[in-house]
Amino acid sequence: MLYLNSNSTAQSLFLTLQDAARDYSYTHYLFKLVHRMSKEEHYFVADTPTDNPRYTEVEVATNGVTTNDILLTETGDYDYYVYVQNSSTNKDPDSALVEGMVEQGTLRVPGASPFTVPTLDTVDAVIFYSGN
Question: pTM for the whole thing?
């Protein structure tokens, strides 16, 4: 599972994308994030300072709306999809510039706990009676 913080700058994800993408000729990775509850979709073209056979580092800010960043304000779980493509600006996975999908999984954007554990107060002098 991947993790991103909402409304933050300069975050990195580490994936192993080249193994699945070796059969494609591509120049960029396109990410699609779909929130599991609201079904809201987000797209960004990955900024990859490191992309080698061992790992791919993806830098993304979650407080912007540029090609390489997204605006994530909703916490929770997202399904993510990674596509390879030959465009640095295309954000449409159905475009002819997209070669194919190379990875999918779950991404979590942590937030405040959705519930609170109640505090139980008990009376000190409790007598239990078992009648026979």
Answer: 0.82
